[in-house]
Amino acid sequence: MTTGVYFCRLQTQDETHVKKMIYSGGTFSLSAPSLTISPLKNEREQKKTATPITASTYKCQITNTNATSPKIIDKELNGIQVAQDTSLNVLVYANYFPIHLVNEWIYQTTYFDPWLGHDSTITDTVIITNVKRLNGREYYRFNDRFGFSFFGNDLFIAGLDTVYIRQNEKGDIVFLAADTEWVYLRFDAALKDSFVVTQVRNTKHSFDIASFNDTVNTPVGLFENCCDMWTEFPDWVDNDEFDYFAPGYGPVKFVYGESGGTIRLIGIKILN
């Protein structure tokens, strides 16, 4: 195989894009395309003349760039057999909830205070502060033992204050409870408009994805292509909410179903 410019097709949900890939020998390094790049159709680029390299097995890394929108889950492919004119078709997933040490979200909650007779606000900061490694995987915890409202509390999930979370290769949120994994949230386009029930220990948790193209305006900025997800603990009353996840940024807004109270993002620090 010669060094030069090749093309790789990336697919995420209902988007398909073609990206140029420069091969200089040894390892592929590929940056995920932004959604502004148009797919290439029946176009070819002349390969650069170079010394031929023997076909072999390589590693392909797909990562975000500053221009990538929406952000994706980084992916590494090992054992890729590459020969002359090899095509790589890779499926990648949007990252609706980036999990990384020191990621930080600051929220402001607005609610009606019956004692004061008017709306009041509370500011809360959620930071990923701890990491735990088990069986080659990394799991994380927050400064607040519950992290986010859609995780419930220890009345809903027994021992929630000991639970760690991780993000799998599809971007799903997975709980680790007593060294057992439980899939908690899934951001799968195939689940849109489907009522899904998951379980953590003996507690049921349900969600329904309404959209992947919502726009949410916050004091931090405008977030597009958000996942609008309704969540609830069905065995308890008055706890449903609408959660909005922005790709590359995570939860940016919450609206409580019964009370209509709103939690808005007012500050954020994300390490992708």
Q: What does this molecule look like?
A:
Strand 10 (164-167) and strand 11 (173-177) form a beta hairpin. This protein folds into two domains: 4-91, no CATH class; 104-269, no CATH class. 0% of the residues lie in helices and 53% in strands. The protein has no helices and 18 strands. It starts with a strand and ends with a strand. It has strands at residues 4-12, 15-23, 28-31, 56-63, 75-82, 88-91, 104-113, 118-134, 137-142, 164-167, 173-177, 180-185, 195-200, 203-217, 222-232, 241-246, 250-256, 262-269. The chain is mainly β and 272 residues long.
Nutshell version of this structure?
By secondary structure, the chain is mainly β. The protein has two domains: 4-91, no CATH class; 104-269, no CATH class.
Number of domains: 2
The end-to-end distance, rounded to whole angstroms, is 33 Å
Order of helices and strands: EEEEEEEEEEEEEEEEEE
Shape: globular
What's the helix count? 0
Helix content: under 10%
Itemize the secondary structure elements and their pairings.
Elements: E1 4-12, E2 15-23, E3 28-31, E4 56-63, E5 75-82, E6 88-91, E7 104-113, E8 118-134, E9 137-142, E10 164-167, E11 173-177, E12 180-185, E13 195-200, E14 203-217, E15 222-232, E16 241-246, E17 250-256, E18 262-269
Parallel strand pairs: 1-6, 3-4
Antiparallel strand pairs: 1-2, 4-5, 7-8, 7-18, 8-9, 10-11, 11-12, 13-14, 14-15, 15-16, 16-17, 17-18
